[in-house]
């Protein structure tokens, strides 16, 4: 089995002090499953999709994606695309706590809210970027609306429903751990949590003292009650668009690419992820003139020969392609690019 060629890449080019941040426009729309809030940056570009993000449990769009989209090298990308950051209901800053007994939407219903967002903005297609629960939601949306999704970046996705053993472990953990600790265990690996770095301390504080913690628990419960996405390799249930699968080095199931927990590469490795994203966009036919020197010299892109994600987590045969010119042909529709950060 071919594997990614790993080298150390030094992070650089953070957003410079004094650099003017983009203006944000916050919107809310009503959907059949309640109100959803989203933030728009930039203006639509002719013949280009919007970049639409969806965050993981315990986070909102800022705490999940801000380090990535404020990274210096990312500015070249965001200048070329309008982007839409969706907050799951009740996760946006200042969100009121839902009343007792409120029925929070399932992950499938959260995916069904996205068409309302695109209709409101009059956007026809998107490139989705999702982490954890957000990656699942965007995958479900892409399955239901394949003609509106040009590509997906899925970070730490688990496409499978929880089995009986998972449920038993979850229940036992709930007897001895608080909701914040369980969510932290979903976001980061045990090694990261034991190290208690400044990043871990920051996010432990964010989640533990979140004023909307009751709302976060509802999103957490919906994630744990997710259905199996039932991807079928070569079957009818498959993602039709190009997909970039991303997993952090700290993820406990790195070999499977699709990890349920551990590692947040958009937080810890924004430089690596930005370069891989540029490479992915080039493969889709965008940003052909973008400089890819660091990535093309230091990493090998891995394109799987299959057009879908295997539900049993076995990897397909990979085709490793190094790029001297820094460009990557998009290959057949539905190709998958695997990246380990």
How are the strands of the biggest sheet laid out side by side?
Answer: 1-2-4-3-5-6-7-10-8-9
N-to-C terminal Cα separation, in Å? 19 Å
Q: Identify the CATH homologous superfamily.
A: Alpha/Beta hydrolase fold, catalytic domain
Give me the secondary-structure category: alpha/beta
Percent of residues in helices comes to 25-40%
| Gross geometry | globular
Strand content: 15-25%
Uncertain segments are: 1-13, 252-262, 295-333
Q: What descriptive keywords fit this protein?
A:
341 residues, alpha/beta, Rossmann fold, 10-stranded mixed beta sheet, 17% strand, globular, disordered N terminus, Protein NDRG2, wnt signaling pathway, NDRG
Quickly describe the structure:
This protein is 34% helix and 17% strand. It has 341 residues and is α/β, with parallel strands linked by helices. Helix 6 (179-187) crosses helix 8.
Description of the structure:
One of its GO terms (cellular component) is growth cone. Contributes to the regulation of the Wnt signaling pathway. Down-regulates CTNNB1-mediated transcriptional activation of target genes, such as CCND1, and may thereby act as tumor suppressor. May be involved in dendritic cell and neuron differentiation. Its main location: other. The structure is a single chain. The chain is an alpha/beta fold and 341 residues long. The protein has helices spanning 61-69, 75-78, 107-121, 133-144, 164-176, 179-187, 190-195, 198-208, 213-224, 265-268, 270-283, 293-298, and strands at residues 24-31, 34-41, 50-54, 83-87, 126-131, 149-155, 243-247, 301-304, 318-321, 336-340. The chain has a 10-stranded mixed sheet with strand order 1-2-4-3-5-6-7-10-8-9, sandwiched between helices. The relative contact order is 0.16.
